[in-house]
Amino acid sequence: MTSINHLENDLWQETPLIYSQPLSSRLNASVYLKLENLHPSYSFKFRGISHFVKVASEKIGPSVHLVIASGGNAGLAAACAAKILGLKCSVFIPDGAAQTTINILKQEGANVIIGGRFYLEAVSAAQALVKSEKDAVMVPAYEHPLIWEGHGSMVTEIHKQLGRDPDAIFCSVGGGGLLGGLIEGCKKVGWETVPLIALETIGSDCFYHSMSLNKGRFNSSEKKLPLGVNLVHNKEHDVYLAHFTGFTSRASGSLGASEPAAGVVRMALERPGGVKCVSVPDELSMEALASFTDDHKLLVELACATTLVPAYHPSLFERLVPVKDGSSEKRTIVFIVCGGFKIDLETASEYKRLLNEAPKGSDAWSVRYDDGQCLQL
């Protein structure tokens, strides 16, 4: 199998890990940003998906036909990787996808196919094509060990760039592909006890609810889940999953997996250093997006800004990464700036308008923890 190091030379360059003076001052910590928004497809997904694509091309050859159902960052990552390697790629999207999304996929040489009215219909249409073609391969968006292995390469880079153990790594989570990569990457470099803190938005927080189910906070027999969320049991990994039938978060385009990868939920539950799950309202992500843009002159998707919410709320940060007893050293923190292409000035302005309309002291400023506690910000 092609090694990750060789893949980096072929498909991506090492992304920067930069020191953030504004966030370090705000949190009284040494804060570093891993700029995964600088990949060819603008997000971390390029790592794992290009790794999967490379391995598939080595097994099947140049005739491989890459097929994916995604009108988001996974679809663009597959299209970019296919273009670099000179491979055929078809991206199935549901009817009603934005024309800008279709245009950027076509610019990368993808064959864009409307696969039905809803995402699941697009998935079914993509699977039907794979079954009908000998050399067609379904590219997973987040649920595959090769995807996690590829994403894990960012931890190898951070380990080299940082030169010391961090006190915590923050990331966003949807289906769990990025988190799975961080877990695998930390295992590889000996960071298994480094706390991982995964954030998502209320209304698309399938990982938060899945972890809560398996930690016993919910009685699975009573199915105490939000309206529109069903209970699923995965036999292979013996975990309960929260299956969303719809989303109310504006970040659902990136974070809105119907259910998380069962394998990642199992890894998170068994990880020595644990995984802390936090669910925040859209308004806090919008606030972080605006503040991050002002501080660092970088525009990121709402899903990416969700990762950064604790960076702009010291009270939340202190709950998540408390100072170790007797320690006088500054904490060292890494935030994964996961990126995303579905953001522009018009969208950012709309978020700012919605943010200004949200009254302070409302549920728009309340954060949920995986232990059931809430914090009003």
Query: Quick one: biggest sheet?
Result: 8 strands, mixed
At the first level of CATH, the class of the largest domain is: Alpha Beta
What is the helix content?
40-55%
Individual helix count: 15
Strand content: 15-25%
CATH topology of the largest domain: Rossmann fold
Query: What kind of oligomer do you see?
Result: single chain
The end-to-end span amounts to 48 Å
CATH architecture of the largest domain: 3-Layer(aba) Sandwich
Structural class of the secondary elements?
alpha/beta
What's the helix-strand series? HEHEHEHEHEHEHEHEHEEHHEHHHEHEE
Overall geometric form: globular
Mean pLDDT: 88
Write the layout of secondary structure elements.
Blueprint (H helix, E strand, L loop, with lengths): L3 H8 L5 E3 L1 H7 L2 E6 L9 H16 L4 E5 L3 H13 L2 E6 L5 H9 L3 E4 L4 H14 L3 E3 L6 H18 L5 E5 L4 H13 L6 E6 L4 H9 L14 E6 L4 E6 L7 H4 L6 H9 L4 E6 L1 H15 L5 H6 L6 H7 L11 E6 L7 H13 L8 E4 L4 E3 L1
Parallel strand pairs: 2-12, 3-4, 3-6, 4-5, 7-8, 7-12, 8-11
Antiparallel strand pairs: 1-2, 9-10, 11-13, 13-14
Notable features of this structure?
alpha/beta; Rossmann fold; 377 residues; single chain; 8-stranded mixed sheet
Task: Report a brief summary of the structure.
Belongs to the serine/threonine dehydratase family. This protein has helices at about 5-10, 20-25, 45-60, 75-85, 100-105, 120-130, 145-160, 175-190, 205-215, 250-255, 260-270, 280-295, 300-305, 315-320, 345-355; strands at about 15-20, 30-35, 65-70, 90-95, 110-115, 135-140, 170, 195-200, 230-235, 240-245, 275-280, 330-335, 365-370, 375.
